[in-house]
Amino acid sequence: MATIDQILRQAANPFDPATFKPGNFWQENPAVNPTVDTIHQEALGAIATLLGQVNDDHKTRTLLLLGDSGSGKSHLLGRLKQTLNAKAFFVYIGPWADSTYIWRHILRQTVDSLIQVPEGQQESQLLLWLKSLSIFQKKTLMDRLLGDRKAFIRQLRETYKTSIYNANEFFGVLFDLLNPELQLTACDWLRGDDLDEEDLRLIRVKNSIDSEDAAQKILENFGRIATETQPIVLCFDNLDGIPRTPEGFIDLQALFNVNSTIHNEKLQGFLLLISVITNTWIENSKRIQPADKARIDTTVSLRPINLTQAEGLLQVRLAHLYAKASPPPPPIYPFSKEGIEQSFPGGKTKPRNVLELGRRLFIEYKAGNQTISDPYAIFKLVWLKELQKSEQKIARIRQLASPELVQMLREALVALGAEDVRSRFLPSPSYFIYSFSFQIAGKGDRTGVVWTEEPNSTSFYHIMKACQKALEVELCQNLVFIRAEKLPRNSTKGYQLFAEIFKRGTHTFLLPSLETVHQLLTFYNLLNSARSKDLVIAGKTPTPEEYFALVRESQILQECELLQALLNPAKVVKKKRIISTKNAKQAALPEIDFAEVNEFLFNFVKINAFLGLQTLIQNTLEQFPHIDRADVEKQIHELVEQKKIQFIDPNAPPEAQLVCLVPQAK
């Protein structure tokens, strides 16, 4: 076996800043962000105790989780899910796009989490929840009911005599969840997609869940039949990214209105876990109605960690390297206990501070004081890690709600310098959340943007009517309609209005690619991390304004075709007024962008000072799983020929070769 110094020279920095910001726990890999059991053990125990009470008496409770930025709130949520998923169903709920859409957002995120498959299980949380109902425990009864939809609905109505909203349709959709051919459509209806008429007929429902009232009542249905199932834990996180009130404060009242409604309606089997930065709570809680704050059953505050726990956090990050070494290295090598004490003289700190210290000290161990941290290289690597999560999460554009797509696009335009950006452009209150307007810098014309992926043709017609009205009252000079979902049939009124405005008229129709949506989602997730002070770049937590500057100066969005079509319309080829580069098959097998691979290799070497050739190749293959090893080796040799990187010992065997930056390369 190799010595620890040989292994560390070959290794990439185990304190990767991309892992400093855990987000949606259904998208995180626990192995990447290991846990020290003693950290926040009291908080974990208090939450587990409260969950046990919900499980015992089915009474819904609310817990407020407070902690400073970097104290480990999001990591704790992931740890809760990992350790307690056998005792409850876990839901992650991030920021919503508009407070008038909050119930629909919560329902959508709830179903999106429930369709996830817990570790060690073969079926999704949603199917596990459904099959825990009492009628599924009676095998003879279920054998008979599974072949008879009407009997299944009738049995559920007799079993659950409480007020179930739209009971026949709701229980019928639960029945369709058990049919593999209808399961996806049933899930789409439950999450609030405005389905087309054909899909509605397939699952035998009249209408989609297209209002706040309907979404609230469907969520209430889960709570009204929850006495026989495990609790559902609703984890609200990243709340600094939620909409703001006209006075500029985050709209926590909207969330606590939801919380009070759930309590007032006496819904059972929920644990609402609301994670907030301590300072954010201090600044905003006074604006929450006292009666709503009184609905908080328990408050848990995360305390700073001690130096023993800090050392433990360094050790778990280094453990996979220690396991390869002989003889075993001293604890926390290549760091020292004295160095930790000097860095935190008060004896207390936050987990993120320890991780950042580890990142810096690891670089210093490798390269001394010669290496200067490059924030743009680090940012681009963090971006690619987040982009990979987006690509893994989103397989079709409609997985994201139209208001979320609008919000992402609007924020990205702000970051790139669009002026006077205004939300809620359409004049119809029912559809303004699908729209916004802006001006291009230096130009007086106003551009209105409407983006909707709702399949329902009736909704499409009303949106086209709202577009027509906006043009009639001159709310904009240019109107852009964005949609990837198929258009209604040519014979429908909605399509005819669409053709009049966007095919025969002077306005623009854009068809976005899945790749574009991945880029926008990545931008938006990192923006929310910046707002919650969870984004760390080169030892700093950028403000949203500083994040916007990073986005502009790194030109990370210059290849986002939809943004370029809006900001530089004169440069866009308007053949059929459509912008799209990839269909579904191409998205599944993306084209290889070797310039992107080349940049990743260069940046990865840059932030690691030097590392093993095999480590560099392996990390590149993990980031770009669709390319071959030979492709990576070719790109490495191109960088060597360009005198950007070099082999420290070209004659060493491949497994021992080290790669470093050429000193003058930038």
UniProtKB/TrEMBL annotation:
One of its GO terms (molecular function) is ATP binding. Keywords: ATP-binding, Nucleotide-binding. The keyword S-adenosyl-L-methionine does not apply. This is ATP-binding protein. Transmembrane segments: none annotated. Residues 43-242 form the Orc1-like AAA ATPase domain. The keyword DNA damage does not apply. SUPFAM superfamilies: P-loop containing nucleoside triphosphate hydrolases (SSF52540). Signal peptide: none annotated. It holds the Pfam family AAA_16.
